[in-house]
Amino acid sequence: MFLTFPIMVIRVDTIEKTIQWRLMNMVYVGLGSFVLSFVWHYLLAKGVSNRKVRADDEKGRMSFVQRVASEKRLSVHAIAIVAVVAVAFPFISSTYQTNIMTTALMYVVLGLGLNIVVGQAGLLNLGYVAFYAAGAYTYALLYYHFGVGFWLALPLGALAATILGILLALPVLRLQGDYLAIVTLGFGEITRIVLENWNEFSFGPSGISGIPRPGLFGMELGMQEAQIYLYFLMIGLCIVTIFVVNRLQDSRIGRALLALREDEIACEAMGIDKTRVKLTAFALGSTWAGLVGVIFAAKTTFVNPASFTFLESAMILSIVVLGGTGSIIGIVIGALVLILLPEYLRAFSDYRMLLFGIIMVIMMVFRPQGIVTGVRKTYEFHTEDDKIKRL
Amino acid sequence: MNYFLELFVGGLTRGSIYALIALGYTMVYGIIELINFAHGEIYMIGAFTALIVASVLAISGMSGLSVLILASVVAVIYSAAYGFTVEKIAYKPLREASRLSPLISAIGMSIFLQNYVLIAQTSEYLPFPNLLPDLPFLESYTGLIGSTEFIIIATTAVIMVMLTVLIKFTKMGKAMRATAQDRNMAKLVGVNVNRVISNTFIIGSALAAVGGILIASHIGRINFYIGFLAGIKAFTAAVLGGIGSIPGAVLGALVLGCTESFATGYISSDYEDVFAFVLLIIILIVKPSGLLGHKTAQKV
Fold first, then answer.
1. What is the DSSP secondary structure assignment for residue A350, as one 8-state letter?
2. d(Cα A231, Cα A322) in Å, to the nearest integer?
3. What is the pLDDT averaged over residues A251-257?
4. CA–CA separation, A249 vs A361, rounded Å?
5. Using an 8 Å Cβ cutoff, are A195 and A202 in contact?
6. Which residues have a Cβ under 8 Å from the Cβ of A55 and sit 6 or more positions away?
7. CA A314, CA B232: separation in Å to the nearest integer?
8. Which of B64, B207, B128, B154 is closest to B145 using CA atoms?
9. Which CATH number applies to B2-286: 2.60.40, 1.10.1060, 1.10.3470, 1.10.10?
10. Bridge-partner residues for A208, per DSSP?
11. Which string of DSSP letters, residue by residue, matches A250-315?
12. For residue A53, pLDDT beyond 60
């Protein structure tokens, strides 16, 4: 307390403008930070003591969401409620809300895709946005040059992103940890800068506009219907993604990825082909980004490089970590929170990104494992005797 | 030939500034293995503080050199205080958490600081007064090296020497090296690890502030967003040289600065940032631990 107090007050001074002296601001922030520092220390102390208590009983650590997920009957009810809300949503709320929801769902899929690379394989990828951009630009360019429709572009976009993913993965296979992180970051930036400057190919910073929304069996849809249609399309894609990712987790590849994350050497000793598994992880992860990229292009009807900055990658990574690395429900919740939060914080207009930053820090400080912690599937070993005794 | 030398000096100037920021990254990484994304923002805050103090002093009628010195001192102190506070708030409670959590916390902090300056100050580019004095003895070389460039390179060199002395020969430096090697072991032999980490953040932030003042004088304008790209470049430089290694960061930064300078001079200025990253990728593929990094043997 003694240490933080002077700094919290001194920090205020930067607010003074060159000629205007805004002393009142200084007083406000001084008072505010004084009170906040008390609250902060109180919560921090409480958090530490809580963690000690929780460590004692394993059950206590399970969050509410997990308990719902673990009990079959409850989870069926929960899914039913979510499904009803999801279907009814575009009809009970405004187009604007639906639009935001579609965006949030896109991030759900992106988060799940990145989770394959970061959460399961443990390869920190800071350039995920490059694959997203690949999908979006595939659709945009194919439409512009050849008039290719949405449904054909969807697999092609995914394919382009996958190829890009493998291309990136090939040279960086030898790298580990933070070196990998910075190379992927660099790769993301390169993609963006190339898109920005290569005018003949990508039309530079002005981007490509007039990309059509998807049609429903050849029908032309109005603005509003198209948005609702896209919303349901995203719901569909979300369900497919969740299904695939869920299956993947317990599959041979999924377990190989986990092994790779835990210990590379032991993993190789177990006969897992490290190179192939890493390539698979990158390819799988980027496929989803490509799919969402195509949908993004269709939704906004316009792509330009400004949509694919590093901040976007950071956002998707935050979704994965905030939601709880490796947990599907966690990522879904994380995406909804992170994308919807800035939208609903619009009431605070100027301050929303400020608050967003604070919330990210606070979340991490008080719940570093994410909203929902991933549950590892454990296999128990029972001898014949055990079974007999149980009977 | 003259053009070549000009580009070379430009590269060195750029590299020097990257080096100042990269040192903060590499020191922090060396000790707690954290990519401190908020470091670029600290550098930006340093530049802003210097601007504010300098303007206030200039208005109140002080002149030349005293403005420079006072503004720099205040900016360095402020940035150090910020670095210290950021560490206390966003990273210290996460010391025991998994590696990704502090990273997200750092990204959050970076967003926060950017918007804090955006709201408290302005989103416009602010003109930065050229505080650095003219050096008369360089006049015969005008066109090759300006006095601003000379001061930047010289300051960086002096700071490098001071830092090396600090780390090699003082008690604090010894404690820092011990903590970097093995935190638990250092704790056991009586090093106050938390204080060492705080010190690292303070030194790193102070260096970033110096970099901020120098580059702002060089370019002549600042806004709240300058920290981001500078941060990424500096981090690239740190990785290039082998992250965690202090001479590596300097070397990496100089190589990066020169590459950018030559590439923009001879090839094309549109792809300035691409060259930096391409160079990084090539070097990491050839030598995965960076130019001067130690190859750590993996334990089984």
1. G
2. 24
3. 83
4. 29
5. yes
6. A61
7. 13
8. B154
9. 1.10.3470
10. A303
11. HSHHHHHHHHHHH-HHHHHHTT--HHHHHHHHHHHHHHHHHHHHHHHHHHHSEE-GGGS-HHHHHH
12. no
Domains of chain B, by residue range, sit at 2-286
Q: What is the pLDDT of residue A232?
A: 81
Yes or no, beta carbons of B105 and A364 under 8 Å apart:
yes
How does DSSP assign B25-50, residue by residue? HHHHHHHH----TTHHHHHHHHHHHH
Nearest CA in chain A to B96: A368
The secondary structure of A7-75 as a DSSP string is HHHHGGGGG--SS---HHHHHHHHHHHHHHHHHHHHHHHHHHHHHHHHHH-TGGGS-HHHHHHHSHHHH
3-state secondary structure of B280: helix
Hey, which residues does A209 pair with through a beta bridge?
Answer: A302
Asked whether B294 and B242 are in contact (CB, 8 A), the reply is yes
Query: How many Cβ contacts (< 8 angstroms) between chains A and B?
Result: 169
CA B225 to CA A155: how far, in whole Å? 37
Identify the residue whose tokens are 């805050």. Answer: B45
- The three-state secondary structure class of B261 is helix
> By three-state DSSP, how is residue B130 classified?
coil
pLDDT in tens, B85-132: 888 777 877 777 677 778 778 888 888 888 877 776 666 677 766 666
Greater confidence (A58 vs A162) lies with: A162
Q: Which of A102, A83, A69 is nearest to A330 (CA)?
A: A69
Mean pLDDT of A241-260: 82
Tokens of A349: 């207009």
In chain B, beta strands by DSSP E: 126-127, 221-222
Distance, CA of A198 to CA of B47 (rounded, Å): 33
Give the A window 276-335 contacts with B, CB below 8 Å: 310, 314, 317-318, 321-322, 325
**A 335-364 residues with CB < 8 A to B:** 350-351, 353-354, 356-361, 363-364
pLDDT-flagged residues of chain B (< 70): 1, 61-64, 97, 120-124, 128-145, 269-270, 288, 290, 293-300
For helices B226-241 and B2-32, the axis angle rounded to 10 degrees is 80
Nearest residue to A343 via CA among A330, A333, A360, A355: A355
State whether residue A178 is helix, strand or coil: helix
Cα gap A238→A333, rounded to integer Å:
13
CB A124 within 8 A of CB A177: yes
CB A217 within 8 A of CB B282: no
The residue in chain A having the minimum alpha-carbon distance to the alpha carbon of residue B34 is A178
At residue A382 the predicted structure's pLDDT band, cuts being 50, 70 and 90, is: low
Number of neighbours of residue A7 by Cβ within 10 angstroms: 18
Residue partners of B5: CB distance under 8 A and separation at least 6:
B144
Name which of A281, A319, A244 is nearest A122 in CA terms.
A281
Contacts of A183 in chain B (CB under 8 A): 280-281, 284
User: What single DSSP character describes residue B270?
Assistant: T
CB spacing of A183 vs B56 below 8 angstroms: no
**How many helices, marked H, and strands, marked E, lie in chain A?**
17, 2
Beta carbons of A115 and A248 less than 8 angstroms apart: no
For position A240, what pLDDT does the model report? Answer: 85
